[in-house]
Task: inverse folding
């Protein structure tokens, strides 16, 4: 199954899981990078990040050159922001329309997963969601346990 991992990460947790999955099954990976991201620290991080979710902002992304048509399975990974996915996915979903793909979803979060999977699934109607899994700040909380969990998960899906 030709697989692409697409993720956004501000502080590296989602990157850790995305890279683990991509290395484990040797697949392509696309990091969504806003041209101007929110600060990584302080009040503004939560304030601007939260506002961008609430107002469905579509931050301009650095150019990406992946042809999504080529892939059978697309794995989306996002930190949970204000109970949803990071706004970079608003931009992606306004630019790329997916149909009849297998989809797997993972999130990284601090303690409240919110509706991230429902929101992704809603945006990805017309595709088949074959798996979803959450990780509680894997960079801070037992990296090995979390990366093992990610490896097991992806193997189940691509077997
Ligand atoms: C703007 C913003 C909003 C957040 N909202 C939530 C939330 O609703 N629930 C939660 O559990 N964690 C929330 N978090 C914490 C992140 O989801 C968590 O730290 C995640 O692991 C970060 O992933 P990253 O390192 O890939 O950026 C939020 C973080 C930010 C920056």
Result:
């Amino acid at each position: 199954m030709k697989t692409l991992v697409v993720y956004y990460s501000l502080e590296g947790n989602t990157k850790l899981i995305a890279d683990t999955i991509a290395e484990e099954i040797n697949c392509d990976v696309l990091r969504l990078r806003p041209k101007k991201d929110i600060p990584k620290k302080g009040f503004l991080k939560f304030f601007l990040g939260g506002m961008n979710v609430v107002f469905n902002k579509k931050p301009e992304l650095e150019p990406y050159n992946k042809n999504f048509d080529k892939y059978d399975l697309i794995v989306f990974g996002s930190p949970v922001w204000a109970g949803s996915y990071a706004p970079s996915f608003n931009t992606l979903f306004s630019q790329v329309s997916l149909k009849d793909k297998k989809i797997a979803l993972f999130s990284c979060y601090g303690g409240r997963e919110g509706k991230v999977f429902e929101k992704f699934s809603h945006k990805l109607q017309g595709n088949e969601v074959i798996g979803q899994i959450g990780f509680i700040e894997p960079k801070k909380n037992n990296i090995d346990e979390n990366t093992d969990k990610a490896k097991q998960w992806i193997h189940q899906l691509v077997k």
The domain at 3-158 is CATH 3.40.50.360 (Rossmann fold). Residues 9-15, 45-46, 49-50, 79-83, 108-112, 114, 137 surround flavin mononucleotide (CB under 6 Å). Strands lie at 3-7, 28-31, 73-79, 102-109, 128-136. The CA atoms of residues 92 and 106 lie 17 Å apart.
